[in-house]
Amino acid sequence: MSNSNITFIGGGNMARSLVGGLVSAGASSTRISVSEPLPEIRDKLLEDFGVNVHAENISAATGAHVIVLAVKPQVLQEVVVPLRDLIAEHRPLLISVAAGVTAPSIERWVGDRPALVRVMPNTPALVGAGISALYANKNVREDQRELAEMIMSAVGKTVWIEDESLMDTVTAVSGSGPAYFFYVMQAIKDAAAAEGLDEDTARLLVLETALGAARLAVASVEDPGTLQKQVTSPGGTTEAAINVLDSSRVSKAFGKAVSAARARGGELAELLDRD
Q: How far does CA 11 lie from the centroid of its chain?
């Protein structure tokens, strides 16, 4: 990675997190460029990380070995089409973190069989605790796969998928997943407050319990269901709570929620798949 020039098209939160993670991991700031139309964002990136900043995409992408497309899905087409000639001439690796935009769409817009890695990150990447799913098209070399993985590892864990159609499921699980956990945390916090705890104490108890449970699950070889049973004593308080959740069919509701998110992801991808 030390010899690779990396350009980010878009300087928003995800790009900023990746830039910060790369610099913290030892990447040279002189080899990182960011194209961003808003001068205040450019100035902040320069101030905080010492990277090269540009107001124009082509100047930022010139000489890049990797171009990270970190713009909103709705504008991705208008961003990449003007880069077609540069991409065809220099053959950089393209990494797209634009949710819902499929590899065939980007390939069609760019033309000439680009090397492309599509990534689905999630919002905990903003604090270096994300999980990103990566899909590489057939034009990506092994060394480029390794480079893409190193870049995304700057903000958390990575996993590869070989079937792009599973990206909708990934989106429903890890992309939307933080919102599910926030939903549960808020519900427990509200319940704690209703049972007499003050807001600050309820919040601290819920967040630290969620964090500790996640760390315990990551450290354990057991699946979460087994861990849940291990702390559910017969006739105890936890069993009383789990019985209510089971009678309310909460597990089935989560299944329906993930299915709905996956289906909606497919619908949005179709809307974005246009010329």
A: 15
Sequence-ordered alpha helix ranges (H) in the chain: 13-24, 39-49, 57-61, 76-80, 84-90, 103-110, 142-152, 167-170, 177-194, 199-219, 224-230, 237-247, 250-272
Q: CATH says 175-268 is which class?
A: mainly alpha
Say if residue 7's pLDDT is above 70: yes
Model confidence over 130-173: pLDDT tens digits?
999 999 999 999 999 999 999 999 999 999 999 999 999 999 99
pLDDT at 23 over 80: yes
Instruction: Look at residues 91, 2, 3, 82 and name the one whose alpha carbon lies nearest to residue 35.
Output: 82
CATH topology of domain 6-167: Rossmann fold (3.40.50)
Q: Is the pLDDT of residue 28 over 70?
A: yes
What separation, in Å, do the N-terminal and C-terminal C-alpha atoms of the chain show? 34
Residue 112 has a pLDDT of: 85
Residue showing tokens 């992801």 = 265
When pLDDT is averaged across residues 20-42 and rounded to a whole number, the result is: 96
Rounded Cα gap, residues 15 and 25, in angstroms = 15
- Number of Cβ within 10 Å of residue 233's Cβ equals 10
Q: CA 117, CA 135: separation in Å to the nearest integer?
A: 5
Q: How far is CA 91 from CA 63, 111, 243, in A?
A: 10, 11, 57
The domain segmentation of the chain, as residue ranges, is 6-167, 175-268
What pLDDT is attached to residue 69? 98
Angstrom distance (rounded) from CA 105 to CA 267: 14
Q: What is the DSSP string of 101-114?
A: --HHHHHHHH-S--
- The confidence score (pLDDT) of residue 265 equals 92
